[in-house]
Specification:
This protein has 13 helices and 9 strands. It is of the alpha+beta class. It has 3 domains: 9-115, Acyl-CoA dehydrogenase/oxidase, N-terminal domain (Butyryl-Coa Dehydrogenase, subunit A, domain 1), CATH 1.10.540.10; 125-232, Butyryl-CoA Dehydrogenase, subunit A, domain 2 (Beta Barrel), CATH 2.40.110; 254-398, Butyryl-CoA Dehydrogenase, subunit A, domain 3 (Up-down Bundle), CATH 1.20.140.
């Protein structure tokens, strides 16, 4: 099928459904949970009760959608409501995506539902790749997984950092080194089942933005998991490692497989924040009067808003194209990275413009644009910084090793 940016009837209904939830439930509670810096369990529960926080929704939106657009559409609406609460609702999706990207069908069916639980028994998922000395440099990961054949167990030791839902999740997906001599090609992903005594939460971070989303260290100390908890299965892992040792291709890195599939979705989140700021500042500019007329009648304000509308539409177009190409495995020039890079830049820029339009009101917490500006900045950083996206894109378009 060809890329078609026109949404079908089901997608339009989902768009409105998520928007209504964001407008009626998420946005009114956003400032409170931002101040509290706590996981908004009551709102996650409400999302679960309507089916938004569920593995069934994720399966329909991610796996059973041939266009690839349903998830970006839903994410834009939810994050239009609030990014911190949005991440608390959608953060488990990164773990689910990691399982879906690398796991066997049996592993997907077993573990993805446990990333969500039910409205009566909420569960969370977490994807743990970054480490204190391995952020952008995935090859620097030091968390080690050693297989003990006598007990058919993996023993994992290390510390992960900047982990959404880290330590409070029921299911953790952890990227670890299985063969240090192979560098980044010697990595594998593992599922840490709920209640494992070898996994604990380290420092919880107090953040600039997305403060309703829990971010913490994950500490693994002689963490023992069954042998079948390596995603893809041990036989497939050994086959891949053998190919790499022979100098053949080992396919994508464990962490990169997940990030490649989620970058357009992350871009959609940033578009939602940017759109919230644009819509709010547009209405403000039409109502705020100075020198006897609405401030939007001043070109300096009107032109800022015109640029905001244009840049947000451009970012969304790249996100939708990236999502479609990713769904059909047609990336040629790192279009997923293009989408995430552009959307992150636009979110930061648009929210800064919104503050400028509101003036002093934009700088105080009585108005939401300062929170949106704080929330937006993370989209230049997590799941690959702005500079890492540029590196990925430049390598893709040149076919050369750019350092």
């Amino acid at each position: 099928m060809d890329f078609n940016p026109e949404l079908n009837e089901d997608q339009i209904q989902i768009q409105q459904w998520v928007h209504d939830f964001a407008a009626e439930v998420v946005r009114p509670a956003a400032a409170d949970w931002d101040e509290r810096e706590e996981t908004p369990w009551p709102i996650i529960k409400e999302a679960a009760e309507i089916g938004l926080y569920s593995w069934e929704f994720m399966a329909e939106a991610m796996m059973n959608d041939p266009t690839g657009l349903t998830m970006p559409v839903a994410l834009e609406e939810l994050f239009w409501g609030d990014a911190g609460i949005g991440l608390s609702i959608m953060g488990s999706g990164l773990a689910a995506a990691g399982i879906a990207a690398s796991g066997t069908p049996e592993q997907v069916m077993e573990w993805v539902p446990q990333c969500y639980g039910s409205a009566e028994n909420l569960m969370l998922g977490a994807f743990a790749s970054s480490e204190p000395d391995a952020g952008s440099d995935v090859a620097a990961i030091r968390t080690r997984a050693v297989y003990e054949e006598s007990t058919d167990e993996w023993v994992i030791n290390g510390t992960k950092t900047w982990i959404t839902n880290g330590g409070i999740a029921d299911v953790h997906v952890v990227v670890a080194v299985v063969d240090p001599e192979l560098g980044s090609r010697g990595h594998a992903s593992f599922v840490i089942p709920p209640g494992n005594a070898g996994l604990s939460q380290g420092q919880k971070f107090q953040k600039h933005g997305i403060r309703a989303s829990h971010t913490a260290e994950v500490v693994l100390t002689d963490c023992r998991i069954p042998g079948n908890c390596v995603l893809g299965g041990r036989d497939k892992l050994e086959e891949r490692l053998a190919r790499v040792r022979e100098g053949k291709s080992g396919n994508a890195q464990a962490a990169m497989q997940t990030f490649e599939s989620t970058r357009p979705a992350v871009g959609a989140q940033a578009v939602g924040i940017a759109r919230a700021a644009y819509e709010y500042s547009l209405e403000y500019a039409k109502e705020r009067r100075q020198f006897g007329r609405p401030i939007i009648q001043n070109q300096s304000i009107a032109f800022m808003l015109a640029d905001m509308a244009m840049e947000i539409d451009a970012a969304r177009a790249l996100v939708w194209r990236g999502a479609w190409l990713g769904k059909h495995k047609k990336y040629r020039n790192a279009e997923g990275s293009m989408a995430k890079l552009k959307a992150g830049r636009v979110a930061v820029w648009a929210t800064e413009r919104a503050i400028q339009i509101l003036g002093g009101y934009g700088y105080v917490r009585d108005y939401p644009v300062e929170r949106w500006h704080r929330d937006a900045k993370i989209y230049d950083i997590f799941e690959g910084t702005e500079q890492i996206q540029q590196l990925v894109i430049s390598r893709a378009i040149s076919g050369m090793r750019i350092e």
